[in-house]
Input
Amino acid sequence: MEAITVTKTKSQSKKQNKDYIIMDKNTKAIVFGYQQRAIQRMLDFDYICRRETPSVAIIVNPTRDGMHKCFWGTKEILIPMVRTLSEATKMHPEADFMVNFASFRSAYETSKEALETKSIRSVAIIAEGIPERRTKELIKIAKEKNKWIIGPATVGGIAAGGFRIGNTAGMLDNIVASKLHRAGSVAYVSKSGGLSNELNNIIAMNTDGVYEGVAIGGDLYPGSTFIDHIMRYEANPDIKMTVLLGEVGGVDEYVVVDAMKKGKIKKPIVAWCIGTCSKVFPVEVQFGHAGARAGTDRETADVKNKAFKDAGAYVPTSFDDFDEQIKKAYTKLVKSGKHKPVPDVEPPIIPLDFDVALKQGVIRKPAQFISTISDDRGEELRYCGVKISKIFEEKWGLGGVIGLLWFKKNLPPWAREFIERVVLLTADHGPAVSGAHNSIVASRAGKDLISSLVSGLLTIGPRFGGAVQGSADHFTKYLYAGEEPSFMVKDMKSKNVNIQGIGHRIKSVTNPDVRVTIMVDFAKKNFPVTETLDYALSVEKLTTSKRNNLILNVDGCIGVLCCDMLRGIGYTHEEVREFVQLGILNAFFVLGRSIGFMGHIMDQKRLKSRLYRHPWDDIEYMMPDEPEKVK
Amino acid sequence: MAQRGIREYNGKKMLAKYWSEYISKDFSFPGKVVLVDPKTKLDDLPKKHKWLNTEKLVVKPDQLFGKRGKHGLIKANVSFTEVKKWIKERMNKDTKVGKVTGKLTHFLIEPYVPHKGEFYVAIKSNRDGDAIYFSNHGGVDIESVWDTVAEIQIGVEEDIDKINIESKLPKDTPKDKKKMFADFAKGLFKFYRDLNYAYLEINPFVVSGKDIVPLDLVARIDDTGHFESSDKWGDLPFPAPFGRKLSKEEKFIKMMDEKSGASLKLTVLNPKGRVWTMVAGGGGSVIYTDTIVDLGYRDELANYGEYSGNPTTDLTYEYAKTILDLMTREKDPKGRPKFLLVGGGIANFTDVAKTFTGITMALRDYKKKLKDTNVKIYVRRGGPNYQEGLRIMKDLGKELGVPIDVYGPETHMTRIVDMALKGEK
Output
């Protein structure tokens, strides 16, 4: 990588003082606006033209300064980026062309500043929608200071083999196909920028190619007009003929007609004005361009075309033989001996950009990363293939989305509702439980929401909240192995392990937990499979016969029902066990309980609670007088 | 975005609102004007505008067309009762104005002003600034008395207060009115410049007592000035030109155009025409339409249309379906083929194959109808990935059994017009 530094170099002293050239292979530009692709396109064009140095000297980006990294052929280079135009011109006084990508709101101010800067000679204004009054002010300044404006509302223009304004002429393969990597002998000026690719193509197919092309833009008052450029072309000995593409609306074309009649233009002109169809419209029509509207007869394309013909221009009878007229004019020049065709030149190969090559399918690369649940590319975000808009339209809800992202399934309504119930049920369990307590303590210590939340979540495990996970594990292990409930109770007892999900501090057979009752009823009514629940209830029968409060608690109930839900949506025993090992039950608990934790954290923040300190009187200090000595 | 006509009502209201700020405090324009649209309850109007019942009135349509007097569309010196009757007779009725037929929907009511002289003032934008035109012979077609018109050019950013307008008024300006007219022209100009007007013509205005009253006003505003002047404009509508009645399909496309960042345009010129275009790009679409007309197939041209600005697949699909639906509704009565030109220039950066996706989807939907109505399709396009785009279209032709001929940038852009239509004359 190499930095392009301030170089007041030879190129400045080499600079030609030919008024008729506003852009060529020595032109250095300031790009206003951080248009990274356009900048790269300008540099790629430079490279296939075999320019010695990049055409972009410096970038003005009001919101950021530093260096911009881009390609110069296969190498990477750095182009300086500054916040103001005055800094840019101070660093690069040799850059006399500004490509202005500012928006229609700010294009006037920035262009004005550029025109009033001594070292800048030409400004191309890309923005569309600048008020006509403002453009007229810019035109006045340009006239007084003898400067050039191309645009507004244009793609710009191109000096074949030398300099490209921003995005002009499209992709590189098109540029090479239109021979723009070297100068031909035909210049054109067009209102439309969109048609400039077509003009490049037509001229390349019928002559030795484009020398320069300018799209003056579709506004009613373009910064420079047909005649301005045509008189430059007339003065430039390397240009042998001119193509003009005008349009309905305005009278700027007549200035050229008059100059032809007065003999000021001697080089051949091939001219056509588009919009001849305006006469077939029942009411006055405004085409896309702001200036493309005929107020009077003189402004119609038909009358303009006739005027060109009368003034001696090559004028086709329709656009369809525009190419033939260009060929005719060119062939005549060559036959007369006034012009020797410019030979073709082989352009250097530009390496393909990785993303372009990938898209074309000419390269491949193993992915580092696979994702099977969602895709944020394309027109709309999709969860497991389902467009986000559809999810809203069809009210898939939280359960539906969890189904897509966790199970990659379009869940039936009962499963969606079950998941939502689990989230609601696990959302909170008061401030005293260890997770909420931890969140509160962290929050009161001044930690941010995420840190406080995480501090609470980190307590979730085998003892806190883990019962959901644990019960699912315990019950399915015995059920799927085909063991009787009585065996499970006995076996766990012999191993001295408490069955997770069984037992409650307060609730009992005679004082059931309403949360469990609701979930069990819901499952009985809606689940296609309740084998784990049934198994757990059988176990409960055995345990409650020993002690009244050894009931299936809410964690246990959720745990077993999640397993039944998974079975109900089509998973096998093996797959359910796999999910359980994966920790999917904890996922439900973490999701739900995060709601509560965050609630407690916000609660504490709103209360502006001070740092928590555990009271001394709640700690039994049992410190020995001295430590045990290790021998 | 461009210069757009506004209603006389809005022009006069704006003028009245800013009269004392820009024009004069010595003489005024009360701005008594009422706009009537199809929803207006005529009988309720006098509650808000008491002068309707106390003064003699003038009523005329306010729909961006001129020469209303010539077409018998001004009723002057009448009572409000007569005004109501006059409007009711015309509201929502088809009316022919010049070559255009349209519905009258908006009317302007204002006081009738008895007067002696009629005067003319206009301001027009030009590349070097703006020109004020003034004549003491208003109220007629101004072209017919052009030798009485004084032209005063005001340069870009030139301070009009430093110009002696009085001395530049026509020689036949009444002495006692010179100062008033000069002040009026100056103020009008400041108003025009500050509010981003591009055209303002008052023909005529009259002097009534101490006041100046513009009788007839035509104005166009540069709508790109919105971000500078919208505070002063207020809620300013830009009505469609008179007679532009949009069909259901045109309205649908217009709605899609307005809702998206892309550009989608459709004008149906002749639904029985056999040549339909579906062209990418603003300039390209005009050129295809031009060429069909210029090669002599004007009577067969069915539509003008354009899609550009990278429309989504859904948008192009809807757009293409709309056109296919229109063109395949009925067979040509003489059994001749119909033509669909899917044209375009060389795209800059748009992936051509991708833009064809929506079109191919629509063509598949219309397979049967395309065959039934004997449609032949010609495609011409260049730009990124055009080879793939053309291949897709070509294969689709085989799949559907509909003739689809495809051409790339090596074929001149409009040649498909000639290929499709030669032998059709």
About this structure: Residues 444 and 611 of chain A are 5 Å apart (CA to CA).
